[in-house]
């Protein structure tokens, strides 16, 4: 919970001088009803996504948590179909199923499997997909700059988190005695907050330029790099079938990219008029 608090607070505080220095336009004045209908639920989704992400890497190895989160494209496609009626081509559907199969194999062979950790990772992936779908619509409908929207949602996400954090962890954190001292722990928290802000800025910048599903697949490719780095640096044990499941999920990402490229080429050669 404290890590989540640091990440959201850092996103709000670091954004203020950075965006002012870069001349990024201010967010539009939203009516109160828009906060209740759209921005409030979006901020709650951001808060819960961050929380579930921390729970997942607390309960299971990072490599497995990010393999499960590679299902984000599957959630994005399913939610886009349920909420907005968007349908995908058979090639895209097949690639999404390949990602799901890879995650299933990795789950079945994970040495440190934990149901709570897997559930938290799945919840984070689903909420992240929902957040991206509606964030994209807010950018399109309101004309808000994507980075100002990121700052606003992070600030609103602190509203439900702050009282919970103060009751649950603030006093315990004040009396805690980290083994390596507060200088070391504080440095790690500060680095985590700065990196979380930079990652969020990069993520919203990409999301503002591509569709939510394309972003989800790009994010799945990013997770493949995280999985490889965690296996090399943290030495998490992984049996061959577990590695095969991770590779299968990565293959699904490549198949998705190929299917979308083929669809784009077909659309480019299709005549504008049916003659």
TrEMBL record:
Pfam families xref list: TPT
Domain Sugar phosphate transporter stretches: 1-257
Keyword terms: Membrane, Transmembrane, Transmembrane helix
Domain of life: Eukaryota
Topology with respect to the bilayer: Multi-pass membrane protein
InterPro entries reported in the protein's UniProt record: EmrE-like (IPR037185), Sugar_P_trans_dom (IPR004853), TPT_transporter (IPR050186)
Localization: Membrane
GO cellular component, one term: membrane
Coiled coil stretches, renumbered: none
Positions of transmembrane segments: 36-58, 64-84, 91-109, 115-135, 147-168, 240-256
Name of protein: Triose-phosphate transporter protein
């Amino acid at each position: 919970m404290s890590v989540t608090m640091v990440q959201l607070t850092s996103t709000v505080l670091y954004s203020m001088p950075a965006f002012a220095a870069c001349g990024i336009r201010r967010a539009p004045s939203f009516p109160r009803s828009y906060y209740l209908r759209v921005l409030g639920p979006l901020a709650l989704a951001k808060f819960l996504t961050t929380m579930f992400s921390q729970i997942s890497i607390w309960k299971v190895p990072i490599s497995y948590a990010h393999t499960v989160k590679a299902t984000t494209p599957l959630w994005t496609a399913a939610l886009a179909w349920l909420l907005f009626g968007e349908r995908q081509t058979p090639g895209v559907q097949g690639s999404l199923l390949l990602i799901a199969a890879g995650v299933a194999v990795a789950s079945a062979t994970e040495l440190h499997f934990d149901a709570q950790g897997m559930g938290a990772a799945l919840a984070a992936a689903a909420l992240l997909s929902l957040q991206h779908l509606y964030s994209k619509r807010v950018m399109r409908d309101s004309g808000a700059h994507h980075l100002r929207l990121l700052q606003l949602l992070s600030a609103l996400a602190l509203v439900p988190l702050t009282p919970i954090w103060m009751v649950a962890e603030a006093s315990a954190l004040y009396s805690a005695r980290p083994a390596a001292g507060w200088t070391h722990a504080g440095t790690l928290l500060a680095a985590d907050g700065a990196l979380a802000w930079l990652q969020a800025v990069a993520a919203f910048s990409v999301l503002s330029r591509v569709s939510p599903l394309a972003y989800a697949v790009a994010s799945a490719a990013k997770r493949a790099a995280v999985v490889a780095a965690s296996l090399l640096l943290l030495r998490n044990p992984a049996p061959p079938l577990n590695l095969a499941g991770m590779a299968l999920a990565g293959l699904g990402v490549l198949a998705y990219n190929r299917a979308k490229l083929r669809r784009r080429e077909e659309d480019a050669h299709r005549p504008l008029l049916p003659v």
